[in-house]
Structure formats: C-alpha cells, structure tokens
Amino acid sequence: MSLHRVCRLEDIVPDTGVCALVAGEQVAVFRIGEKVFAIGNRDPFSGAYVLSRGIVGDLKGELVVASPVYKQHFSLVTGRCIEDDAVAVPVYRAVVDGADVLVL
User: Fold this and answer.
1) Domain boundaries in the chain?
2) C-alpha angle 34/39/41, rounded to 5°?
3) How do strand 55-59 and strand 73-75 relate by DSSP bridges?
4) What's the pLDDT tens digit per position in 2-32?
5) What topology is assigned to 4-103 in CATH?
6) Do 96 and 36 contact (CB within 8 A), yes or no?
7) Phi-psi bin for 71: left (phi > 0), alpha (psi -120 to 50), beta?
8) Using one digit for the tens of pLDDT, what is the confidence trace for 48-66?
9) Whose CA is closest to 97, among 17, 34, 30?
C-alpha cells in the first residue's frame, strides 16, 4: 500500500478535521497541533459520513472526536467507540511529510 497526499498541513485548522477520499474510502483527517490522525469518516451509529465534522477533544486522556449526529466519541488512535466497546471505525496511518499530510 502507498501513502496518499491528501492536503497540506496548513489546510487543516488546528483541532479540527477534514474529509479526504483515499483509495475510494472517505477518511476523516484531524490535526492536533502538528500531529495528524485519520479514521473512517462514517459514523457507524447513524450511517452518515460526518466524523470529520465532529468536535475534537480529550476524554480521560484519550484523543477523541464526538460524532455530530448522536455524540458518541471515537478514539483518534484506536478508532474504538468510548461508549460502546463493540463498535469501532477504521484507523489509517497518517503522517506529516514536510508541509504535506499523507494517509496510508
């Protein structure tokens, strides 16, 4: 598998997310400071592709995004749902290379 350039780091406002199409999949890419995280954009509870528009935060020391639909929290590191351990979203490798954000 190869890394896909999705945008420049400066294109993502700090502590927010954007959506990118990577190998035919919608991926939510989040910028926390100078680090980036990528998870699937589909909210498994509503079926809507909205996680990139969720609110990013810290829940008991874990970086999460809250779905804008039903407000479940998903870990930006593991993809697991904080409220329901049986549910998770895909996690993608994301890196900053110079000024570019790359997702695998």
Assistant:
1) 4-103
2) 120
3) unpaired
4) 899 999 999 999 999 999 999 999 999 999 9
5) Rieske Iron-sulfur Protein (2.102.10)
6) yes
7) left
8) 999 999 999 999 999 999 9
9) 34
